[in-house]
Amino acid sequence: MKIMLKDGSFKEYSEAKSVYEIALDISEGLARMACAGEVDGKVVDLRTVIDKDVTLNIITANDPAALPVIRHTTSHVLAEAVKRLRPDAKVTIGPSIEDGFYYDFLTDPFSREDLDALEAEMKKIIKEGKEISRFTLPREEAIKFMEEKGEPFKVELIKDLPEDAEISFYDQGGFTDLCAGPHLMSTKNIKAFKLISSSMAYWRGKSDREKLQRIYGTAFNKKEELEAHLQKLEDAKMRDHNKLGREMGLFLTADVIGQGLPLFTPKGTKMIMKLQRWIEDLEDNEWGYVRTRTPLMAKSDLYKISGHWDHYMDGMFILNKDAEDGKEVMALRPMTCPFQYYVYMNEQKSYRDLPYRMSETSTLFRNEDSGEMHGLTRVRQFTITEAHIVLTPEQAEEELTRCVDLAHFVMKTLGINGDVTYRLSKWDPNNKAKYEGDENYWNSTQQYLRDVMNKNGIVFTEEDGEAAFYGPKIDIQAKNVYGKEDTMVTIQLDCSAAAKFGMYYIDEQGNKATPWIIHRTSMGCYERTLAWLIEHYAGKFPTWLCPEQVRILTISEKYNEYAEKVKAELKKAGVDVTVDKRSEKIGYKIREARLAKLPYWVIVGEQEQAENLVSVSSRFAGNEGQKPVADFVAQIVDEIKNKTIREEVNE
RNA sequence: GCUAGAAUAGCUCAGCCGGUAGAGCACUUCACUCGUAAUGAAGGGGUCGUCAGUUCGAAUCUGAUUUCUAGCUCCA
């Protein structure tokens, strides 16, 4: 057989050889560094035997592709350490994940001290340099093997494997685990690892199954890479909107007000209002939307028609639920859809009126479980710019494209379009009760959205069980500083609601026809968007979004009057400006202006006052020198108007 | 909702084998009126998240509760 190597050279062997043996044949050093093989583009275990012509790449420890192998092997070392220190613990699964690995055990909770002890034990196991070997067993023997070891979760895993699956085990000198691999050849090849945290996790992710203890860890090729990664985690914490947003005085929470109910300060409110005014004007003036203003609550009857009463009762705040005096049962709205439908139905529509685009800056209420709330990203009351577009089926493709375009434009303007991924959120065919409509409805609407994204060249993933109960969604997702994903913008196709509510339009033949509806956001949730902006910019917002765009620093109190004059000029031009009149040293005032992450600060003193100048400094360019006041006003107004995103200067 | 951890001054934190609280920064006042990262001095500020219990006595021990954090579950 003939093996083509990465550099284009060939190796020929008469008999079958494992990847490791081939690596050894090339050079001993390579074999020492080898972590896995890549056979015809597929990552495989070093023990994989090759018996035909292939292209082979030996993945060494320096290759990022080796990380999952290293991490997975580290998780096995962790499992052995846990079994040594807690023989009664039951093992489950321990995959490598982005940035690390985890392993779930059925045992008592781990404290930080337990994790430290486990780390020490793992170091011992690594030092022991145990050879890792692989073997397979027939199904029945594999089950018996794990039953004898007293590992019920492994038995369950084997039983759930397809009948024809190869059942492989990896043994590291006494500790044996059911595993598909791939793995390193020896535990001693683990050079740098760290146990990060522990927490509870449900077996197979189901809240009615066993409660397991999960340990998260990470591993790298080199100590330096591990250190760098841990440093990155620390740095990410500095950007955390929940900390930074509070420190910057943008929002707060109060125990007595409740969970998931943030209060915005004047600064935070200013930022949200800038976003809101911008998006409302944009939609109304350039994208053909009309604006509605509808109630924040409604009788339960409305939600019974919409389906929320059946599908979403637990998520709603219900008023007068157990009222005995005959008061109507009401609910705070969890969405705006049916309210806008009634606005649509107020006047009979012709096909000429469609697409009919109704938008509303809409406050919604959702009764999240107590453990779900987080900063500004998961809250119980939030505001979105929500629209419902009523249209004919023929118009849907173009209109969906427009919705994607608008969302894209919004994110580009905010400077965060590079942070997002697109997702087609589908129903769960195994849990049909959660959704309305039959298989045919879901397959056709999902295909419709798929086609629209493909035609527009959008790269997207598909996810089952993420759809709304009435239809599939295009979700635009973003990750927070901890890597957790949230939906920023959603565009949903709904071909069933109109009929439920009796919505229609008069078509070209003069007959009543049932429209389709697009549910979509452009700004998504303001709270979440603000959180995202805080983390993306680490608080250094583009000038147009800053609640304080310019601060005037006076050299001494003698120049307060002139400072007020400059302030008035800026205010008149619509700039958010303040004056620091305190009798502090100028260096101290500058330091504070920097700490506040201000885009601009200007210094006024004797010379400036005499010649009508300001000394301009900015986050972006450092000291910009003296400028006539009028020039500075023009500069900043231009920047705000064009929503310019300037590069930061490195200090 | 689940598991674990946490809550002390505006912020960051110390105190904790039980004897009713401390630091730095911030704030106020006075002096200084200053040119691109911290002027000096003095002062004010906390029923130690809340409610119970144990105790002669609780920030410290116990229980409950609220809020926060991580992860799980959930996210129409």
Taking Cα atoms only, what radius of gyration do you get, to the nearest Å?
A: 31 Å
Q: So what's the overall shape?
A: globular
Question: Could you tell me the number of beta strands?
Answer: 36
Overall helicity: 25-40%
**Major sheet attributes:** 8 strands, mixed
Structural class computed from helices and strand pairing? alpha+beta
The fraction of residues in strands falls at 25-35%
- On the 0 to 100 scale, the average pLDDT is 86
Q: Distance between the terminal alpha carbons, to the nearest Å?
A: 59 Å
| Tally of contiguous helical segments | 20
Low-confidence stretches are none
Largest sheet strand order: 18-23-24-31-28-27-25-26
Description:
- The protein is an alpha+beta fold and 651 residues long.
- The strands form 9 sheets. The protein has an 8-stranded mixed β-sheet with strand order 18-23-24-31-28-27-25-26. The protein has a 5-stranded mixed β-sheet with strand order 2-1-7-4-5. Strands 8, 9, 10, 14 and 15 form a 5-stranded antiparallel β-sheet that branches.
- The protein is globular, with a radius of gyration of 31 Å.
- The two termini are 59 Å apart.
- It binds one RNA strand of 76 nucleotides through strand 14, strand 15 and helix 18.
